[in-house]
Amino acid sequence: MKEKTVILTGNPNTGKTTIFNALTGLHQKTGNWPGVTVEIKEGSFVYQDTKFKMLDLPGTYSLTSFTEDEKIARDILVKEKADVVVVVADASNLERNLYLVMLLLELEQNVVLDLNMYDVARDKGLAIDVNHLETILGTKCVITIGSKRTGIEALKQAIYDASEDKKEVITKINYGEAEEQISLVEKALGDISSPYPIRFLAIRLLEQDADIKAFIKTTPVYQNIKEVIDAVYNCFPDIETYLIEKRYGFTHGVSEECTKRMDILENRIKLTDKLDRFFIHPFYGTLSFLFFIWATFNIVFNWGSPFTHLLEKLFAFAAKNITSLLHSIDSPEWIASLLTDGIIGGVGSVLIFLPNIFILFFVFAALEDSGYIARAAFVTDRLMHKIGLHGKSAIPMILGFGCNVPAIMATRTLETKKDRVLTILATPFMSCSARLPVYLLFTGIFFQHNRGSILFSLYLIGTFTGLLTAKLFKSVFFKEESPPIIMELPLFHAPDIRNMLISAWERSYLFIRKAGGIIFFGVIIIWVLSYFPLSATYAGEDSFIGILGSKLAVLLKPAGFGYWQAAVALLFGLVAKELVVGTFGAVFGGEAGITAALSSLFTPLSAYAFMLMTLIYIPCIATIAVIKQEAGIKWAIIATIWSIFIGWVVAVLFYQGFKLY
Domain ranges in the chain? Predict the structure, then answer.
C-alpha cells in the first residue's frame, strides 16, 4: 500500500479540527514535532489503496515569523515536503482565508482548498463559483460542511487526485511596480541552496522577514543581497506595505469574482448578532462568563457523582477479592499490601474521578465548538488591559483550566516577549484538571451540600492570583503597554456532539495514560516509603514516608494541616497533582480509608486552606519544564519559588484569619 503525507492547515475558527476528525476518525494521536515543542496532531485514513498520513498544524493566518505558531507552521511545511496541503477555509469569509492560500502557492505547495462551513455561507446569502475559483487558483476546491460530515468523501477524492497528479504551481500574484525589485533580488540570490523557492525568498526578504534574513546571513550571497535590498528600499521605501496590500488586493479581487450574493432580507437579524448583544456586553457578558463557569462545575459534580460512586465500589470490590485470593494461596503480605494499599488504593483513588474529568472536557468542548470561548476572551480584554496583559492572553489562561502545559505553549500566539512571559507566569494559577481530583475528594467529604460553589470559588481565587501575579511582575520587569485585542468572533452554531465526544475522550485518555505512567510509578514509590522499614507500621510515623513528612509538616502547621501525611501528599504533588490524592490513597489504604482519615485530620476550614495550597503552588514538573522551554530557566525558577511562597502565604492567611471567627 502506498503512503503519502497530507498537511492540514488554515485560519483559526474554520472548523479545521472538525475536518481532521471527520477524515481520520479515531486513527489519530497527539505528539511533539521534532525540534519544536508545539503539539501536532497526527492521523491517517486509507483511500483507494493509499494510506494518507495527516498532520494537523496549529491555526494560523500567515506564514511570517511574527508569531511562534506561524514560524512552526512554515518550518513544518518546508521540511515535511507533503504530497498535499489542505487549506481549510471558512467559506463565509473567503477573502480573508485566501491570504494564507496565496502564501502557500508562493511556497509552491500542492494545495487543495476546502471551502468548509458552507452552510454558514449559504445562510449569509453567499454562493461560491467553485469551478471558476479552481481555474483562477489552479488548485482543487471542495465544498464541505464538517459538522454534518457533508463533502468528506469528495475531499478525500480531491486529496487523492492531487497527490497522484502534482501540477506545477501556475498561479502567482502580479506585484506590479514591485516585480522589477523582486527580479533584482531573485537574480542576486542566484542558485542559492535553500529549502524555499527563490521567488518566495525574494518576497520575504523584501517584507523584512526576520527568519529569512537570519537564514540568508549564513549564505555566501549575504553581502550582495544586503546591498540589493538596501538599494531597493532607497528607491522604494514602502515596498513592504505595497507587497502586502497587493496580496490583499488580489485575494479581494478573487473573492469578489467568485462569490455571488443572493438576495436576502436586509432587516433579517442573525442569531449571532442577537446573542452578541448580550455575550460581549461589558456587564452582561462578564456575568454570563461567570455563570457558565459556575454552571460547568455544578454539571461536573451532579452528572459525574453517580459514575464516581460506581467506580469507588468497583475498586473496593477488586481490592477485597484480590486480598482474599492472595490470602487463600498464602501469598506474602507485602504483595497483598502492594496491590491493594499501593496500586489499587493509590491509582484507584485517582481514576474514580475520570467521569468528572470527562464531563469537564465535554462541557469545555461544547463552549469552544459553539463559538463562545472567543467571546469569553473578548469580554475579558478590558480587565486584561488594566492588569497589563494583552486581550489574547485570556485564551491561554482559559486553556489552562484544562492543562497548564499546552496553555503555556499557546502563549506563542502573543506577539511580544512581555505578553508571553507575563501570561506564562499567570497561567499556572489557572486550576487545571489535575487539581480537580483533590477538590472532588475534599469537597465530597467536607462540603457535600455546596460543592459546586466551593469549586467555583477556588477557580476564581486561582484566576485572581494569576492576574495579580501578572500585574505585580509587569510593574517590576515590564513597563510598556499592550496593544488592544483584534480578533475574529466566529458565528454561533450548535456544537457537534461527535467532536465534543472525541475532544473529551482525547483529553481524558491523557489522564488515563498519566494514571498508568507517572501516577502508577509514583504510588509504588509512595508504597515503598510507607511499607519500609519492616519494623515500622504501614504508613506510620516511623515509616520512611512518615519521617520525611514529619520534617516538612512543621512548615504547614500555621496553615492548619501540619500533618506528615499532608506534607508528603503536597511533596509528591510536585510530580503530578493527581499524586496528592494518590498519596492519600496509598497511605490510607484506598477510598474508604481516605474518607475516615481525612475527616479526623482536617476541619472544613483547614480542608479549604489545603485546597488553596494545592491550587496555587506550582502544578507539576511538566509545567516547570515547559516554562523553562518557552521563557528560559530564570522565569522557570522565579515561577516555581513565587508559586510555592504565595500558596503558603494565602493558605496561612486564610486559615489564621478565619480561625478567629
Answer: 2-164, 176-261, 284-481+499-659
